[in-house]
Design goal:
The chain has 212 residues and is α+β, with helices and mostly antiparallel strands. The chain has 3 helices and 7 strands.
């Protein structure tokens, strides 16, 4: 459908409360297609609706990461990404592992984060049916990372004050280079206009494609 601009931190829209989706309508299906197009345009493996400025409880995970299809080859896409609508984390393992994570809203930034190795999530799919997904490793990490977006939790919440300031300076320069204005937490103007951003990466995939 369309590639939408990614909202880059410290844009305050990333902290907005997300609202549940009552039913899968044509509008939600259109949003899903925009999320798919945007995720792949930014070389991602996951994306949350709030990352394109739509504060609803919905995120996507690449089908290959979710174990539901092969990755595309030769420039072709694989199976459609798995949609999680109104997701609920049902269980997480006590066993944890640490790995670098990035985020489409934090281009060029990677943060080592310790997360449960396994997770189980209940959600509604783009077909309107409720399902449960159990994953481990990267799939679990991707689900938990994207679920964080729906609660306003971001990569910078996993680092100390000094690192947070460094990340903020870097991303402010990134946005200034892109459109000449920094959309920060203290910005006073209307944030509803679109602005272009460069390529961003997300949940780290060693020696492979990344993005969330």
């Amino acid at each position: 459908m369309a590639v939408r601009p990614i909202v880059i931190w410290p844009d305050p829209r990333l902290r907005e409360a997300t609202r549940p989706i009552a039913e899968v309508t044509d509008e939600i299906r259109s949003l899903y297609r925009d999320l798919v197009d945007t995720m792949y345009a930014y070389d991602g493996v996951g994306i949350a609706a709030i990352q394109i400025g739509v504060p609803v409880r919905m995120f996507l995970v690449d089908a290959a990461i979710a174990g539901q299809g092969d990755a595309g080859s030769g420039g072709e896409r694989g199976a459609d990404p798995l949609a999680f609508i109104n997701p609920e984390v049902l269980a997480m393992s006590g066993e944890k592992e640490k790995a670098d994570e990035g985020c489409l809203s934090f281009p060029g930034i990677y943060v080592p984060i310790e997360r449960p190795r396994r997770a189980r999530v209940r959600a509604m799919g783009i077909d309107g049916k409720t399902f449960e997904a159990a994953g481990e490793g990267l799939f679990a990490r991707a689900m938990l990372h994207e679920h964080d977006h729906l609660t306003g939790k971001l990569l910078v919440d996993f680092v100390g004050p000094l690192k947070k300031r460094q990340i903020k300076r870097k991303l402010e320069r990134h946005v200034e280079d892109a459109d000449g204005h920094v959309h920060g937490e203290d910005c006073q103007h209307d944030h509803d206009h679109d602005h272009e951003h460069g390529q961003a990466h997300g949940v780290a995939l060693p020696a492979s494609r990344s993005g969330a």
